Structure formats: structure tokens, C-alpha cells
Amino acid sequence: MKNTGKRIFFIDPQSLRNLAIYDYSLQSHFPNGVHYFCSCHYDYQKHENINYHYVFKYNHLGNNVLKALSYLWSYLIILFYILRLRPNIIHVQWFRIPVFDYYFYKTAKHLVPFKLIYTAHNILPHDTGDKYKAIYSKIYKLTDHIIAHTKETQNKLNEIFNVSLNNITVIRHGYLKTGVSNNVDTNYQPEYQKKLDGKLVFSAVGYQYDYKGSDIIAKAWEEYEELNQNKNIVLLIAGMNKGVDFSAIENFDNVIIDDRRIPNEEFHQILLDTDILLLPYKRISQSGILLSAISASIPVVVTKLGGLTEPFEVADIGWIIDNADAESLGKKLTYLANNVQEVREKKNNEKIWQAARDFYSWDEISQKTVDLYFSL
């Protein structure tokens, strides 16, 4: 696409793994010359028409003080570019230190007039309650426009933070292509894959948090003998544990718990080995893991919440439970364990998966984002 005259900065402090895939996909229809400020550990493909600036190093530091100092230094570099290039649009994906971010952009807007766009992937940071509500109220007032992924998020921004509906555009979160880049061996197989062969595999993949319902999964598996004593099924929990108690299920023969950050190549392989992905979230706007499942044609069990049921509007990609509790999930998993053929048919029905992927097409999503840039 040709450059249409506006100088655009796209800033994502978390641009690695799935978030790098998200950025790359969103940028597919971006005009020439966009300046992309990303992680030094960005690990996906690149667009020839995008200017890459690798400025964020905090992700791989262990000490919180060092992380904060590194983050602040990265933004000093960005400030230099703001003063030198004087962007018309700055589009931010995530705020990692909200108080600092607020004052940084407030100051920058005084120095250089630009429109600030923010993608509200979540209304507030996960699992923080109202801790950041006051500062995000200021952030939302500072931004010139907000992108939300669902109508529900748009309405909550309006109701909770009094953001005008005219200042919020709903643009869906596209599906995330699975796989890896940079010549990584995508045929890598986790050590426990042999334990999955011939079994119906229920998986919970990624960081394990309470808000994701990981505790609900554990409780359902513990309480239903039809699950924990069934030799024909496996529960695979793969991802770093962020405070969930799995002690009641870790000794069951049909449970595998892999408590670590899962590398891209293993994440891809785990998805391919999964028959049903478990997403019994308690709070969520939209889930990147859900959109990865759509890419890989993996049926899901989701809570009737946020954007989790949105793909069901166009394709029957799995099963919905009404409540995020162990009873609702346990009954559904027991049903699925006894109806393997239904699971296989849904997993192998390419028609429904293509319909879901078309619904979350990046072509439309990217173009809508560009249209927003040039409407401001």
C-alpha cells in the first residue's frame, strides 16, 4: 500500500510469541512507512513496508526494578523519535506501567500534536480488580480513540468510564495463525506426546490463571470420577502456573501438568494433539487462545462470556457452558468423554472452521484499522 501522507507510530511493548503474530497480521494492509516500536525479542515474520524499531528489552529481565528501568528507557528512545519525526497517529497496544504511560503520553501530546489510539484488549489489566481503575479512567480520557474487540467491551467502556460511543470503534480480533517462523522445527514433539496417542485429549494451554477458570478445570476433574478414572481420556495442562492449586489432580493417571512457559513450536504441536480446548473463563473480553484454536481447527468449550461465544454466531466450533463453575464444566466434559464421535466430526468439519476463519479475516480487520487512522 502506498503512503497516504500521515506518519504513523504503532507501539507494542509485548510484541513476541502470539502478540507478535497478532501485530504482523494486523499490519497486513498498513501503508508504507509505518514505524513499529516492538520488542527486541520479536520472533515472527516481517513486512517489507514497515520500519521496525526494536526498543523493548524488559520482557526477558528477571528483576522487577530492572524491568521498570528498561521500560522507561525504551520510552525515552520513543520520545526521541516522536520529537524527530512528529507522528500524526500513535497507536498503542498495551500499557505495562499505566501511571508512567499516562504521564508519558500526556507530556508527549503537549510537545507534539498527535492522535492517540489505544486498543482495549481488556478494559483493565487481568486479575487486578479495581486497582488500576483510577489511572485507566485518566488514560481513556487522554486517548483520542479506542479500539474494542467486541460490542460488550464498547458498552462497558461507555458505562464504567463514560467514554463516548463515538470515540470507540469495534474491530474484531483476528484469528491467530499457529506455527512458528525463523526456521524453527515445527515437527518438535513434547516428551509426553506418546501419552496422548489414542486418547481423547482435553487441554488447557498457556498461562494458568484463576480468571481463566483453571481452578474450575481442576475442581471438575477432581469431583467427577467419570473423568479422573477414565483411561480413554487425558487432561493436559500446559503452561506456567500463576497461582492455581492443581494438587488435587496432579496424581491422577490421566492428568499431565507441564508447569513452564511453552515455546512456540511446542504450543503449535500441543494444539494439533488437542481434541477439545478448555476455556471456562470467569472474566474476558476476547481470547487469543480461542483464535489460535480457530486457526488450528480445534473445538472449544467456552463460558457464555465476552467475545468467547462470538464465533458461534457463524460456526458451531464447540460447546458453550452457561456458568463458570465445576458442575457445569464437569457435566459437559463427561458428556463429551462419552460422545467421542461428535467431537471427531466437529474437529474434522472443515466447512465450519473455514466459516470461522472468514469471520475473523485479517484483511477486513487490517483495512478497518487503516480506515480509522485516516478518519481522525
Briefly characterize the structure.
With 376 residues, this protein is of the alpha/beta class.
Describe this structure in words.
The protein has 376 residues and is an alpha/beta fold. 38% of the residues lie in helices and 16% in strands. It contains 13 helices and 13 strands. It has helices spanning 18-26, 64-85, 98-111, 133-142, 151-161, 214-223, 225-228, 264-273, 288-296, 326-337, 340-347, 350-359, 362-375, and strands spanning 8-11, 34-39, 50-56, 89-92, 115-120, 145-148, 168-170, 200-205, 233-238, 255-258, 276-279, 300-303, 318-321. Strands 3-2-1-4-5-6-7 form a 7-stranded parallel β-sheet. It has a 6-stranded parallel β-sheet with strand order 10-9-8-11-12-13, sandwiched between helices. Strand 6, helix 5 and strand 7 form a beta-alpha-beta unit. Helix 2 (64-85) packs parallel to helix 3 (98-111) and helix 3 packs parallel to helix 4. The longest helix is centred in the N-terminal third of the chain and has 22 residues, at 64-85. The protein is globular, with a radius of gyration of 21 Å. Residues 180-185 have low confidence and may be disordered.
Descriptive key words:
376 residues, six-stranded parallel beta sheet, 13 helices
